[in-house]
């Protein structure tokens, strides 16, 4: 596994990361033993960039990751996030970017992870009630205290990114990016590249839809959050399935799976982009890692652009209320 630089501050990570969210939340019940084995297998394959957040579980995912890396912490680059508030019962309480909460959340994450510093600490969602300068100022204090190495933002808009970067260098921006979520190409990617900020692409497989394994909504577990996602509902599901079938045709002609093609496409959009596909199984992880070796001809990229242009997906990527929390 090659490495890629995230930003101009010196952070270097594996060219593909591992999103750990689904190991504890949102996508139905997961097997903790298999999840830990998957994280440990990731290390064997050179995937050492692990992504979690305090709200995954809630709180369970950080504990799981801490258990998986115990005794070999220095072998991994650990990224976690704060600001989306959830109760112990899983209820969503809101978003908080208050300086005092930044410190409180960081200390809590360090405790759950069982580590003495976080490599990359993101504000998960921007709090519109707190100036970004105040939030990032508190995050910078964590760097000065040695609790955090690099700072990141997630789902922040260009103006917010610029304001944050003036307070303290931002190493990475994390935003959804895939063949059915190409919104960052409008202005986000240009902004982070101008400022020397790396880009971390979450859900590069369209929350698993682009793999082609979901042929009808009923294929999703009953407690799976995706059942409430507009792109997985009604006519949107059917229209998006047509997109997957077109991608699958291209993949088959290349001798790879649809998931591998979709993941490889994200990776070749720039050396400053690091996709973090999530999985709960070692077999899927191994297939994802193999996608790193895939390259494309100019003709193949043109064909992919033709079948999956910007705006091709039917439905928004989150329900209406949640969409109001992105790109702020």
What does this structure look like?
This protein has 328 residues and is α/β, with parallel strands linked by helices. 38% of the residues lie in helices and 16% in strands. The chain is built from eleven helices and twelve strands. The protein has helices at 32-44, 60-69, 99-113, 132-144, 158-167, 188-195, 234-254, 258-267, 282-290, 298-307, 320-323; strands at 3-6, 11-14, 18-19, 49-51, 77-82, 84-86, 92-95, 118-123, 148-154, 172-176, 198-202, 273-275. Helix 5 (158-167) packs parallel to helix 6 (188-195) and helix 7 packs antiparallel against helix 10 (298-307). It is globular, with a radius of gyration of 19 Å. It starts with a strand and ends in a 5-residue tail after the last helix. The model has no long low-confidence stretch (mean pLDDT 96).
The secondary-structure class comes to alpha/beta
How far the N terminus sits from the C terminus, by CA atoms, comes to 34 Å
Helix content bin: 25-40%
Looking at the structure, what is the overall shape? Answer: globular
Please trace the helix and strand order, writing H or E for each element: EEEHEHEEEHEHEHEHEHHEHHH
What portion of residues belong to β-strands?
A: 15-25%
Mean pLDDT: 96
The largest sheet is: 8 strands, parallel
Beta-strand segment tally = 12
In the sheet with the most strands, the strands line up as 3-4-5-8-9-10-11-12
Continuous helix count: 11
State Rg. Answer: 19 Å
Unreliable stretches (pLDDT < 50, length at least 5) are none
């Amino acid at each position: 596994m090659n490495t890629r630089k995230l930003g101009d501050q010196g952070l270097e990570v594996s060219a593909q990361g591992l999103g750990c969210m689904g190991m504890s939340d949102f996508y139905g019940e997961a097997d903790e033993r298999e999840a830990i084995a998957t994280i440990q297998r990731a290390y064997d394959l050179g995937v050492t960039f692990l992504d979690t957040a305090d709200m995954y579980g809630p709180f369970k995912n950080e504990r799981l990751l801490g258990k998986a890396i115990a005794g070999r912490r220095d072998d991994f680059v650990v990224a976690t996030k704060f600001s989306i508030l959830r109760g112990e019962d899983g209820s969503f309480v809101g978003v908080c970017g208050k300086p005092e909460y930044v410190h409180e959340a960081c200390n809590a994450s360090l405790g759950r992870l069982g580590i003495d510093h976080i490599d990359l600490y993101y504000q998960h969602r921007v709090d519109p009630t707190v100036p970004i300068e105040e939030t990032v100022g508190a995050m910078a204090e964590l760097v000065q205290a040695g609790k955090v190495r690099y700072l990141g933002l997630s789902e922040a808009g260009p103006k917010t990114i610029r304001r944050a970067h003036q307070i303290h260098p931002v190493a990475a921006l994390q935003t959804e990016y895939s063949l059915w979520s190409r919104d960052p190409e409008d202005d986000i990617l240009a902004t982070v590249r101008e400022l020397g900020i790396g880009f971390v692409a979450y859900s590069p497989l369209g929350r698993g839809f682009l793999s082609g394994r979901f042929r009808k909504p009923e294929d999703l577990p009953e407690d799976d959050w995706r059942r409430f996602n507009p792109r997985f509902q009604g006519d949107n599901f059917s229209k998006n399935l047509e997109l997957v079938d077109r991608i699958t045709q291209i993949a088959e002609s290349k001798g790879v799976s649809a998931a591998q093609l979709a993941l490889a496409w994200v990776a070749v959009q720039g050396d400053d982009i690091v996709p973090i596909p999530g999985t709960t199984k070692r077999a899927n992880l191994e297939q994802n890692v193999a996608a790193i070796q895939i390259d494309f001809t100019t003709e193949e990229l043109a064909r992919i652009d033709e079948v999956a242009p910007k705006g091709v997906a039917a439905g928004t990527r989150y329900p209406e209320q949640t969409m109001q929390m992105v790109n702020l």
